[in-house]
């Protein structure tokens, strides 16, 4: 299994990403007839078979990996001009992770499971995300 990490361009918080979940699929006319979140990217991953139904996309928001979404499947898409894309079809559930700093990059990158930040526990104190984000910003996490 291999994960994907991608910059969440134009989004400044996890809450803002949550508000876009339902809208994005319709922006691209990518209605898959189910309750999913769709993100369209230019290239189909060569390691797609290692991702579908097993991996997650880790979102970098304001320089920090802060959440992930399970990848259900990857679907090819071609526009009217024949340009090909990849629709990343994800669970609508956003899973918050321990904040992990990530420098900007273009496109997406593979992320090995051992390098992925752990999920924040369901029973964590409400302030733990704020503390973890500050520790990550200081380079202590």
From TrEMBL:
InterPro entries assigned to the protein according to its UniProt record, in alphabetical order: UCP032025 (IPR008320)
Domain of life: Bacteria
Xref: Pfam families: DUF1489
Protein name according to UniProt: DUF1489 family protein
């Amino acid at each position: 299994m291999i994960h994907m990490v991608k910059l969440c361009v134009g989004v400044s918080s996890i809450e803002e990403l949550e508000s876009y979940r339902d809208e994005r699929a319709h922006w691209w006319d990518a209605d898959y007839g189910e309750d999913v979140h769709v993100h369209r990217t230019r290239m189909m991953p060569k390691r797609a078979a290692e991702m579908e139904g097993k991996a997650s996309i880790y979102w970098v928001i304001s320089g920090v990996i802060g959440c992930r979404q399970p990848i259900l499947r990857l679907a090819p898409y071609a526009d009217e001009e024949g340009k090909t894309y990849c629709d990343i079809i994800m669970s609508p559930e956003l899973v918050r992770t321990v904040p992990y700093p990530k420098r900007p990059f273009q496109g997406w990158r593979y992320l090995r499971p051992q390098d992925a930040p752990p999920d924040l526990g369901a029973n964590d104190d409400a302030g733990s995300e704020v503390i973890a984000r500050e520790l990550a910003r200081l380079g202590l996490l």
